[in-house]
Amino acid sequence: MVAQVFTIANQKGGVGKTTTSINLGAALAEKDIPTLIIDIDPQGNATSGLGQEKTAGKSLYGPLSGEGNASDLIIGTGIQNLYLIPSEVDIAALEIEISQRDDYLMQLRRCIAPLKDSSRFKSIIIDCPPALGLLSMNGLAAANYLLITLQCEYLAMEGLGQILQVVERLKTANINANLEVGGIIMTMYDVRTNLSKQVVIEVSSHFEKEVFNTVIPRSVRLSEAPSFGQSILHYDPHCTGSLAYRNLAKEVIQRFNLS
């Protein structure tokens, strides 16, 4: 079985992108879906958020530079069925190095193709930097589906059109003709405010099929978990954040036939 590749991207930072990469991955793993998280953000927040060290030479920098194989970099996370290719600061140099190649948008796709075809994983989640630079564009070029995390605030909606335009450009340029917007995940939902409710209603009215039913709450526990190197499912298994990501995983499994 060929793995489905999900790129979680948004040009805006602080919208729950890495939180979703970690916790959706953990929730899929809990449902017996073998999942690989690939951290291509030089900040390495998904790496540290899963309790792993950022170590020189352990990121995709080598394979993307023509040295070594991506499969050699896979490590366990301590969570059954969940694996990681870590990131570290050196990967930032790839923005410059990749740009000098003719097929600069296809590097990541080629690099992870053996992992996608290996039958080892059912899902691969790529956590991108909070910008639409070359690393994120490579993430989109390598994906079957884009998952957009969208904060429940009006300003967060301004960038939605931009990333959707990027998807269309990649498709029309035949860089990734099969790329689809797999879904929009509404994050940082505050039950105490009408604003959050209004934003969800407005986005859902324009993107009814794309928006997941599950909304991710604004939660102190969700914010705390990465500092302990744990997913929310392991840091506080019974909190609202854990429940939300388990429900999101159920939707993802059903929507993309991962079971």
Topology of this protein?
Blueprint: E1 4-9, H1 17-30, E2 35-39, H2 45-49, H3 61-64, E3 75-76, E4 82-85, H4 94-99, H5 107-116, E5 123-127, H6 134-141, E6 145-151, H7 154-157, H8 160-172, E7 180-187, H9 194-206, H10 220-224, H11 232-235, H12 240-255
Parallel strand pairs: 1-5, 1-6, 2-4, 2-5, 6-7
Antiparallel strand pairs: 3-4
Helix pairs in contact: 1-12
Structure notes:
The protein has a single domain (4-255), classed as 3-Layer(aba) Sandwich (Rossmann fold), CATH 3.40.50.300. The protein has helices spanning 17-30, 45-49, 61-64, 94-99, 107-116, 134-141, 154-157, 160-172, 194-206, 220-224, 232-235, 240-255, and strands at 4-9, 35-39, 75-76, 82-85, 123-127, 145-151, 180-187. It has a seven-stranded mixed sheet with strand order 3-4-2-5-1-6-7, sandwiched between helices. Strand 3 and strand 4 (82-85) form a beta hairpin. With 259 residues, it is an alpha/beta fold. 39% of the residues lie in helices and 14% in strands. The longest helix has 16 residues, at 240-255.
